[in-house]
Please model this.
Amino acid sequence: MNIYVSGLYSGGNPQPGIGIIRSLREGYPFIKLVGVEYSNRVSGIHWEELDDVQVHRPWDELNLEAHGDKVRDLLDEGNLWISGSDLEALWLASIFPDGHANLLAPPGGALKGIAKPAAEALAGLPLKVPPFVSTDLPDWDLHAFCRAHDWRLWLKGPYYDAARTPGWDSFVAVRNALSKVWSTERLFLQAHVSGYEESVMLAAYRGKLLGCVSMRKRDITPEGKTWAGDISEVEPEFEEPLRRIVRQLNWTGGGEIEMVRDASGQRWLLEMNPRFPAWVHGATIAGHNLPALLVQAAASINARKPRRQASEFTRVVIEVPVRDDYPLPALPEPFAGAIGHSMKHPSGLTALAERLHKAEVAPGTSPEQPPASPSCIPQVPETYLADIARHDLTEVQTPKFLYLDSTAESLFIKASERARRMSSSEVEVVSGYSIKTNPDERLIRLAREHGFLAEAISLLEVHKALQVGFRADQVILNGPGKWWPEGMMPRGRLHAVFCDSVADLNRCVDAMEKGEMASKHVGVRIRTPNVVSRFGIPLDSPGTFAKLVEAVQRLPSNSAFGVHFHMASSNIGVAQWWHLFESMLKWCRSIEKLAGRTIEILDMGGGWFPDDWHATDDSRFARAVETVKAMLPGVRQIVSEPGKAMAQPSMALAMRILEIQEHEHDYVEAVVDASIAELPMFAFQPHRILRHCPRTGALQPLGRGKSDLMGRLCMEHDIVAQKIALPDDARPGDVLIFCDVGGYDRSMSYVFGRG
Amino acid sequence: MYLVEAESGAAVSNEQKLESRRPVSARWEDFPYSRLSHHGGACCDVAREWVLAMDFAQLNGADLSSGPRWLRARYKWGPSAWPMHWCELVGRKVIDCGAHAALSREAFAARGLTAFPVQLVQRYSEGAVEEWRGSWNKEGVSCHWLDGEHIYHEATALLVGDGEVKIWDGSAGSWANPRQSGRGYGSVLALRLFADPESVTPAGFRWGDRQIAANVWNELV
Model:
């Protein structure tokens, strides 16, 4: 009897083959061990404890049917096969759906039960699964998931590969790359859990758990892979349900449940691998030789009792002689103009993934399937559709921003009503309209009509607010350039002025003493200490904090004191924003205590994504108001500044298709008459896109597909949308409408390429 | 720790030193744990408020029981002269284990958690100890914490469950590993946790698989 072991890759992210070989050699010093690989570039084939090596052609060349027959022959002859590769295990399960007595890998049903990310079969274990979504969802919903989880996320491939995506632009780039590598659009996005990683390794034969062992990572590689660990017994409250699950799944072979333990001690499932982990021999060193247990169960040959050398293990890098019969292959030529040799996946695992998709063996979408399932199509609010339909889309001169009047008004009404509900006799809650998000007079007027204050960052903006009908005492002035341009300071008393620096505060005090400026409230903007920001007075050292306290003490006593802080919740995530809010209240309490000034006005914002602001029920805001009351009892007014949440939904951008270019593999490039000059936020947030059907007049939301929309500019990066599903009957002249452009898309749009 | 107390606590005779059966903690039997001093004025008020507000900010929404690793990132571990006031501490770049432990304890308490002072005896090597002795001598600071291959160290115990603690080693920026205590380079040989005698049970606290009696040295070898 020979034992065939695959998965010998021994780079920085190693497979378990060599660890299995080492453990088997300890358990069975005289048995013949044969290493199996699919590339002679895999260094593990040179491991000296291998009695023989079989190097097959890489997976992209391999005749899978013939290879399957060879494996079957080997197993029928009484040899054992231990798979050290997830994808090979998946392929083997397709060849042997009910297993084979000598195949030490799990059957197909078991693999389905542990499929990432839910791994439903593991539901009985004391684990939680970090929140996740499939990238099948519309971009709009994926962006919402990212915000909800503070942009602390992993975008994961169907088998391997995971990348952090801290922003929308990086998410889109990684999604494109992983989809291409793994030949599927079906990736998943999962919330990060901070903590310490640990694993449980198991060995089972035909549904009987032979052994399991726990490992905590004690040192990791830059990729997060185990470099050192400690080994211990699995607790009974984990082992008992695991035993039941193994029986239910009829598991055979090795397995690894990867987890992370958070600060509260809760364990979260990362994934379950259908093979032994690469650290398998670390457990053998600690006296738990699971590969030997597995062979013992399958072959009924007793293994040598393992020798416990230590309860901890670590790794070193060693050089080994290259086998004469497998001399090193040539290093590929670097791609011209590129850096490096592109050596990842030498055995062609990605090609195997594609072949399994085509054979419908693996989960994921085959390249032939239409990529835009109905779930990819975003929900567009009815008010948007009704407002857009009121414009004459056949005659509209494009590109053109369309004002969605009833949508805009409904948002201001909602915000105004919420502010009223949050107010009490002790504390008034009022909304502030940030003029810079969109200085369109129609929006400023709506703000005034619905009881908002006007938030200005320059005297030009103050002037605009006054022109539209705000009184000076309804205007808040803040920002680093608030004195610009000179000579425009209103004569009337402002509602509040917030100083952005100590120098700004000195200037403000000076102007008030000279009678050049008057304000009911004067305060400071404080810089977020843990989120990078250029605005406000910093708190990053006790020295700067002391300066802030001294500066506050110099503020004139005939104005009420206030504090302003602002950080875009869409950038840092909703939960982190609320943590920042609480943190800021603590800083405010310290400032009050040390400066001896009571805070009477609190101005907090902003940059809220509309769905986060308008869809959330009142409870979170009500709790925030109660927290303010408890921590800062002197506060009489809270100015809540939702930022782009008010403006963004209020406009759409109509554009026409100028040309449709059809390429290979159904890829389409459509040139439109709009550009990044009208959509400067195109890389930072998704936009919901509608197509106006010229035949029926219907507004059709577009899902994901194989078309890119190219802007009209002669600029390489002028691509306003990627991977959308343009209808087959789309023609030049058709009107497309980008929703959600009423915020910074509109206010930061610029004139470019118009002569 | 105050230098005077440290020096008096370290006054151990040679005979005692030679006694092989004495507990590893004997040299530090009467050592008090470190406490920060306050000038009673605005200087220390500002410093303390800054540390506690910054600690909450640095959590970034993480679990309140997360270790305050930012303190170790801001303040390197090294020789410190005592007594130490809040306003002096925040201006330093290097602080010793007693100051790290005191800061961590204050931070956990300000988050609403229960934290206790912890003293440890750890084993390193005579070579390491001599290196440290040189560094401490260079700064003119007492070496009372060094003894052969053993060192006196301070940390913070955080109550995380019913009688269960984790030990935050602020100087290292990591949690002490209860599985490793008892032998080897860097291991914990003895531990004393200070808690209000009125509020602890005779069983004391659980640290990993170990039971720790409060207010006495627990030998872990």
